Amino acid sequence: MILLKTRTPLMTVDDFYDFVNRPENRARSFELVRGEVIEVSRPRRPHGFICGNAARKLANFTFRKKKGYITTNDTGIILEHDPGSVRGADIAYYEDAKNFEGLPEKWGDTVPRLIVEVLSPNDTAQYILEKIGDYFRGGVELVWVIDPDSRRVNAYSRDHGVQTLTEKDTLTGGDVLPGFRCKVADLFVLPEAAKASVKKVKRKRNQ
């Protein structure tokens, strides 16, 4: 969802924090890539819906396991300090705090173990691959890229390469979230459709 690059002197993380919090910038979205500011667009509704579904699945799992926590809404992730790199992830899974008071006040230096990105129409392959590369260099172990158009998930592992999953497949958490399982198809299902599907299964069982 890249829009444009803003030509400014290379920024540190602290410079960037001050920049995004200027009054004229507070309603806009930016990332910092090796010192350069990039403005990014506001996502479409399907994008937000899929993020909500994926975040709910992950958050429910972490609460059951009582380990880690989920962030959403392009929360800043520091990947490099000087020149700075601060990326925004749709969803991220961390294990660095046990209570709300333990969360960093700003972005924090701890890197998430898992990141989920949902593609936007203007995301280029180069932009996504560069972002994944930055995540892995920063220490992220697993990145899931969800494509709303093809309804597929590319699961990128820092150690095991990439796996493409379709709606017929099941997404798993691997070594990062052992025991986590989610049908890819469930990421694209609205509650009313899920309710109708359950009723259909029950009718078949009763026949």
Helix coverage percent = 25-40%
Structural class: alpha+beta
Shape descriptor: globular
| Whole-number count of domains | 1
| Proportion of strand residues | 25-35%
Topology as a string of helices (H) and strands (E): EHEEHEEEHEEEEEH
Average pLDDT: 90
Annotated CATH architecture: Alpha-Beta Complex
CATH superfamily: tt1808, chain A
CATH fold label: tt1808, chain A
Uncertain segments: none
Q: Main β-sheet: number of strands, strand sense, barrel status?
A: 6 strands, mixed
H/I helix tally: 4
Question: Cα-atom Rg, whole angstroms?
Answer: 18 Å
* Order of strands in the sheet with most strands: 4-5-6-7-8-9
What's the number of extended β-strand segments?
Answer: 11
Terminal residue distance? 48 Å
State the CATH class.
Answer: Alpha Beta
Question: Any key phrases for this structure?
Answer:
single chain; 207 residues; alpha+beta; tt1808, chain A; six-stranded mixed sheet; three-stranded antiparallel sheet; 4 helices
